Amino acid sequence: MDFINIFIKSAFIENMILAYFLGMCSYLAVSKSIKTAFGLGLAVIFVLGITIPINWLINEYLLGENGIFHTDLTFLRFILFIAVIASMVQLVEMVIEKFSPALYTSLGIFLPLITVNCAILGGSLFMVSREYNFTQSVAFGLGGGFGWFLAIVAIAAIREKMRYSQVPAPLRGLGMAFILTGLMGIAFMSLMGIDPAALAGK
Amino acid sequence: MGLLEFAKKLEPDKKKSPFLHTVYDGFFTFLFTPNTVTRGGVHVRDAMDLKRTMTFVVLALMLPFVFGTYNIGQQHFMAIGQHTGYFEALHLKLVFGLIKIVPIWVVSMVVGLGIEFYFANRKGHGIEEGFLVTGALIPLIMPPDIPLWILTVSIVFAVILGKEAFGGTGMNIWNIALLSRVFVFFAYPTTISGDTVWVAGFDQLAPGAAVDYGWADYLFNGLFNAFGWSTFNDSAHITDAFTGATPLGIAAHAGWHEVTEVYAPSQMWWGVIPGSIGETSKPLILIGALMLIVTGIASWRIMAGMILGAALVALGLNAWGATPFMEVPWYYQFYMGSFFFAMAFMATDPVTGSNTPRGKWIYGFLIGCIGMVIRVLNPAYPEGWMLAILLLNTFVPLIDYLVVQSNITKRLKRA
Question: What is the ipTM score, two decimals?
Answer without folding.
Answer: 0.89
